[in-house]
Amino acid sequence: MRDQVYDYLQTQSLGTLALSAELPFNSGAEPLYVKNSKRVYVDIAESDTDPFITALNGLNISFETTTVSVYFSVDAKRLPANYNSIVNQVKAAIHVNVQGFSQRTTTVAREYVDDLLITQIDLSFIKLT
Q1: What is the Cα–Cα distance from 68 to 99, expressed in whole angstroms?
Q2: Residue 33: exposure state from Cβ atoms within 10 A (0-12, 13-18, ≥19)
Q3: Which of 91, 101, 107 lies closest to 66, judged by CA?
Q4: What is the pLDDT of residue 54?
Q5: Residue 87 — pLDDT band, cuts 50, 70, 90?
Q6: What is the pLDDT of residues 1-10, one digit of tens each?
Q7: pLDDT band (50, 70, 90) for residue 102
Q8: Containing domain of residue 38, as a range?
Q9: What is the mean pLDDT of residues 30-51?
Q10: What is the tally of structural domains in the chain?
């Protein structure tokens, strides 16, 4: 799933931001997206399964949610003019071509660390299993 999101973002014009092939791991005490401002990092997919229907006859139906997180930071004092456009382009990655998912949702979280605005966009793909 990470590959599809990464490939999609490669085709987008992210303005002053650059797409990194690296995972958003910690270098020293801080994540790369804090250390390297104006770089977009795509994390590996995480999966979670929640029971939906559990029957006495052994029938179990669950929601399986696969989430890919995208991170980047920018200078909060001089926000890029196309900041909202970048966020919308990343959110549009929810429409990548993956089959079998009945729901797709996005969540945007913002946090300030010193003079940086850190943006995390979670792309969640949900299916019944």
Answers
A1: 16
A2: buried
A3: 101
A4: 79
A5: very high
A6: 899 999 999 9
A7: confident
A8: 2-128
A9: 92
A10: 1
Question: What gap in Å lies between CA 111 and CA 91, rounded to an integer?
Answer: 17
DSSP tally for the chain: helices H, then strands E? 3, 8
Helices (H), 1-129: 2-10, 32-35, 83-91
What is the H or E stretch that residue 109 is in?
A: strand 103-113
Please say whether the beta carbons of 121 and 80 come within 8 A.
Answer: no
Residue 71's CB: how many other CB atoms inside 10 A?
Answer: 21
Tokens linked to 107: 């969540």
What are the tokens at 67? Answer: 């989430």
Q: Residue 119: which CATH number?
A: 3.30.70
